[in-house]
Amino acid sequence: MSCCLEFLTTLGAIVLLYFLYECLKSPVKLLYYQWLEREKKLPPLTDKYGKWAAITGSTDGIGKAYSRELARKGFNIVLIARNEEKLRQTAKEIEQDFGVEVSTIKADFSHGAVIYDKLFQDLEKRPIRLFVNNVGIGHNPPGIIPTYDAQHLWDMIHVNIAAVTQLSRHFVNLWLRQGVTGCLVNVSSILEMQPCPYGSVYGATKAYITSFTKALQLEVESFGINIQLLSPAGVRTKINKYSSWILKGNLIVPTAEDYAKWAVNTLGKTRASTGYFWHGIQTMVLKLMPTRWRSELIIKLAKITVDDTTNINEHDIRRKYGLSQKL
């Protein structure tokens, strides 16, 4: 009996230590790399990945801030987005602020398969060895699935799932053929961790990115290709415009600029990261909860933080569909 108790105690201690390691490794590594950056002990990323980086969704939010941070570190930048005027303006800003070369590619990922042949041809004009799959669209405002039209859902599947899949395949194939080291960053979300009520399709697309990226890491890491999964929580960007609370920002909701400064320091060093210290702490707290509790927490937070609750308020939904009200 005592041997059995001793075994169970030892096993429990091992499981606890492993759980703590999984919870704490992201925020601890983020602090460590931030310290190395401040002490200027991080080697230049351009030494490992060459001089050219490309980012999708790079004229707003995290994508724009990430592009600027890479330019600050000496990369020439390829900006990829759908708005030509924003592309020109962002390219001009980066060139003036950092003195690097910037090229632009106009691409609307919601158009699906028809855009990729030309996009791949344009991308191969530069020796890109760092690529960031950042582009994504969300539900604005959040709501139950019937409140979105079919085209919006198709757009989300094309933008959030097809783009990361096709571009990952393209660059892994390209780098393998060239025999070079490359780095691919796929941007997911903290919502990958559990079903996401009122953002069901968006959350599912992020779960796809997470599963796809983790599998890709195991497939190609032995060939010298780094694949990173980046999973931020709330950031002050227009994808969160449905919530004035998020847009105000706070300690756990940074600006895109602050987020990018932390996230870029993890490039080529970690397989997965939240990209920001306080997001790592949030993730740790969520991991302490059962999956269903996390989803129920999303419901409670949505009712507090979403400005327009028409599509999530049960009374409004019943009235919209002519259903009888609950007694």
From TrEMBL:
Q: Name one Pfam family in it.
A: adh_short
Record SUPFAM superfamilies: NAD(P)-binding Rossmann-fold domains (SSF51735)
Print the keywords alphabetically: Oxidoreductase
Q: Which CDD domains match?
A: 17beta-HSD1_like_SDR_c
Please classify the protein's predominant subcellular localization into one broad category.
Answer: endoplasmic reticulum
- Report the superkingdom from the record: Eukaryota
Q: Which compartment or compartments is the protein found in?
A: Endoplasmic reticulum
Q: Its family? A: Belongs to the short-chain dehydrogenases/reductases (SDR) family.
This chain's protein is named Hydroxysteroid dehydrogenase-like protein 1
